[in-house]
Specification:
- With 207 residues, the chain is mainly alpha-helical.
- It has a domain of 139 residues: Hypothetical protein af1432.
- The chain is 54% helix and 11% strand.
- It has a three-stranded mixed β-sheet with strand order 1-2-3, with helices on one face.
- A hairpin with a 3-residue loop joins strand 1 and strand 2.
- Helix 1 runs parallel beside helix 4, helix 4 packs across helix 8 and helix 8 packs across helix 10.
- The protein starts with a helix and ends in a 12-residue tail after the last strand.
Length: 207
């Protein structure tokens, strides 16, 4: 895959359909940073890293057709699958679509036709990447880019994600904790989120 050319295609579609580019670009940055921090857990490669980046950039484009937001995750997946891509194979497009689709709501299940149709190794890939996207999306719950940096410590039964926030980040911590459900299942570890002292915490709600 020609990643620079593919990235240009992804960004073109994102800018054409996305109303909050700063949000999805920040989520993408957090997601790939988390991917790097958890490399010892997932063992994925640079192409997988780019698939996560692409899905993160496009995870909310479904809002362009689901105006009230209901089902926008499924619409994002559909728009990704139906787009005419020059630098992605059909199989790769399908993986990106599924990672984007699972950024919210229900977890991947064999009851979902597209997910069930994948080979076991590809299902695992979708689960791993989507789990990171869910957390990253939670960490920008306010869509204000409050989390400026993260790092992770991996322990036998848990993962602690350390956060540096430039504003109070209780909503982000609550959302990331809620959306770490898939990561906990996939990696068999409890995930906790630790804002740096002084980051502040003033409210709590999660999508």
């Amino acid at each position: 895959m020609n990643i620079p050319a593919a990235r240009e295609e992804v960004l073109a579609l994102m800018h054409a359909l996305e109303e909050e580019p700063h949000h999805v670009q920040h989520v993408a940055s957090l997601a790939v940073h988390l991917f790097d921090e958890l490399e010892d857990l997932h063992g994925l490669n640079d192409q997988d890293r780019f698939l996560l980046e692409a899905a993160s950039q496009l995870h909310d484009i479904g809002w362009s057709v689901a105006r009230e937001g209901k089902g926008h995750h499924r619409e994002s997946a559909r728009l990704i699958r139906e787009h005419h891509w020059n630098n992605f194979s059909l199989d790769t497009t399908g993986l990106i679509a599924q990672v984007a689709r699972y950024h919210r709501k229900s977890l991947p299940t064999m009851e979902h036709e597209e997910f069930a149709a994948l080979a076991p190794a590809e299902r695992r890939r979708v689960q791993q990447l989507a789990s990171l996207l869910r957390i990253a999306d939670g960490l920008d719950r306010s869509h204000q880019q409050y989390i400026s940096h993260l790092s992770a410590e991996i322990f036998p039964g848990r993962v602690t994600v350390h956060l540096i926030a430039n504003r109070p980040a209780t909503r982000e911590v609550a959302a990331a904790t809620k959306k770490s459900d898939l990561a906990q299942a996939v990696f068999q570890r409890e995930f906790s989120f630790a804002p740096q002292p002084g980051a502040g915490e003033t409210d709590s709600s999660a999508r």
